[in-house]
Amino acid sequence: MTNKTVDVDFPSRIGVWWNSEPWPIRDAQKIVQEIEALGFGSLFIPEGGGKDALVESAAFLAATDRLVVGTGIANIHFRIPTPAETGARTLAALHPGRFVLGLGVSHAPFVEEAMKGTYRKPLATMRTYLERMNSVQAEIEEGVRPARVLAALGPKMIELSGELADGAHPYLVTPEQTAATRNILGPDKWLVPEQAVAIGGDEEDQLRWAHTHVGFYVGLQNYRNSWLRQGFDESDLIPGGSDRLVRALVGMGTAERAAASITAHLDAGADHVVVQIVGDGPTTDPRSALRELATVLQL
Description:
The protein has 299 residues and is of the alpha/beta class. It has helices at 25-37, 53-63, 81-94, 108-114, 122-134, 155-163, 175-185, 203-218, 221-229, 243-249, 255-267, 287-296, and strands at residues 14-17, 42-45, 68-71, 74-75, 99-104, 147-150, 167-168, 190-191, 194-199, 250-253, 273-277.
């Protein structure tokens, strides 16, 4: 898609969001190789504090040929701006068009309790961080421009995604929110939302998996505010989330219904969508469900 400010060579418009941190890196590389072989266009990985997302990205880029690898997201509280920028430039230089640096401000409980850090105003913190990244001397990997997207939920962070980054990587949003994000970003910035799906088991299993997944985020103020903006109310923000909330955020049922929840974001203006398989826990192997989806999506 050459109309973007920075080109990313996605082999297809649908990728995968997968938490690789609990897996030994050699095993994770094998899973990522199958993700590429199935025809998915990307792998986006989180950074929860267990492993360095840029180091993991390097391992996955080296293990694949065309797959785009992105951080979804790299926590700006884990590293100062200079190595974030130079590390991204290095990966982009080694693998042109195949690396996306997703950045996020994380959440107050993680930063203050787990990291013993200070969580200040997220918008101002992110703006300062990006400005410092932009001040890194051009001679380092000269001419290389890594793609950069932000974990943007609110309108001001979305605006910043278009001003000082190359787009947005929203998480746990509806297709309607994807459309609203596109309206703010305009046509020339990348929009790569995540979509969770539950495939397999029976309806009760899928609903339980969805509640467990969404329930992890219900206590985080950034997501609560996002869902209130998306039209939900406090009755939906109960422990585990209401049935209405989880059914809106997690594609459940057959592989065909799950696929429809993914393509709805493309129809709403996303450039690329990353699908997350939810199951019994973070060590759930995503490959069986991804094989079903790849067939239905005709990847």
